[in-house]
Amino acid sequence: MQFGGASAAFDSVRDRNIMAIKLGVSHQTPETLMKERLRYLVAMGVESMEVRMPAVQATFDGIMAVKQKVEAAGIELHEILLNDILEIDAVTLGGAGRDAIMDTFKHFIADLGRAGIKYTTYAWNTGGKAYETHRTKTRGVPTRRFELEAALALPNQHDHTFSDEHMWQTYEAFVKEILPVAEAADVRLQLHPNDPPVNNRGVARIFRSVNAFRRGMEIGGNSPYNGALFCVGTFGQMAGPDGLGEDIPAAIREFGARGLIHLVHLRNVDNHLPNFDETFPDNGWIDFLAIADALADINFEGVIVPDHVPEMPDGLSGEAYVFGYLRALIQYIERLKAAARIS
Q1: Residue 68: what are its φ and ψ, rounded to 5°?
Q2: pLDDT per residue over 273-284, tens digit each?
Q3: How far is 251 from 12, CA to CA, in rounded Å?
Q4: Which of 42, 82, 125, 310 could make an SS bond with 92 (beta carbons 3.0 to 4.6 A apart)?
Q5: In b/e form, how buried is each residue of 292-307, taking b as 16+ CB within 10 angstroms?
């Protein structure tokens, strides 16, 4: 790509401080929102945040308290998600207590809308104890490893199994019931893929492929209120139709062109199924420049966050490294977008 005259357009956007894509941070909780943590995030260039909290804390007043604290630090609150009913069995598998949990989720979505928070994430029984089968190291730093054989050896979660057909039935019922609530509240739901993206422990993990996301989005009528949280690392773990992995840039272009991607989790893995290690963003099998090209092609204007950062002993420098990498990647994407506007 020759940028040429795009520099002036890019500089104009940068100088006005309205960079369309925001660098975000995920996996925060109300307890982590200390002044020192918030100052560090601002220094790293973080502009947006995801906060996770239990349903009992996520009253309207609780939501507003989090929002006020985050915004007082100069950071946008992109979303709050419920970490205890994100993918609860009574809803995803079906069973006693479903209606009460759905009522809680509906009230939560309505409160998000009242608070002016536009997004929340959910998953569909993602992986449980099979998520990490081993610990390993990447460039000498502790990180997660997954081995399919070990995961498949784990005992079933329940006394009977749940098929793909069953999980699709419960998912369709969920979407038909919750989507009108989200649309009325002006809150966009973001579906996280199954991680690991493979059936395990007697439960079909249906969101394990790009094709499954096509089906899921179609169930929601391709509404932007039921989009995808595009977790690049998890899509990178998927075996793909030929066992060689999914075409991740193509999936970004497909779903992004329909306005179904608002948040991107960026992490890398060294391989897809059956076995993989999480890595730093610059040394996995996923081509992050190709990811950036795809995001530029769809004129992405959402939030990009680091995800599952390898654990440095000081607890900060690994995260800081990834923040810097992603800020550079965002600048690259914005320059591509500027070049496209003047071409």
Answers
A1: -65, -40
A2: 999 999 999 999
A3: 31
A4: 125
A5: bbbbbbbebebbbbbb
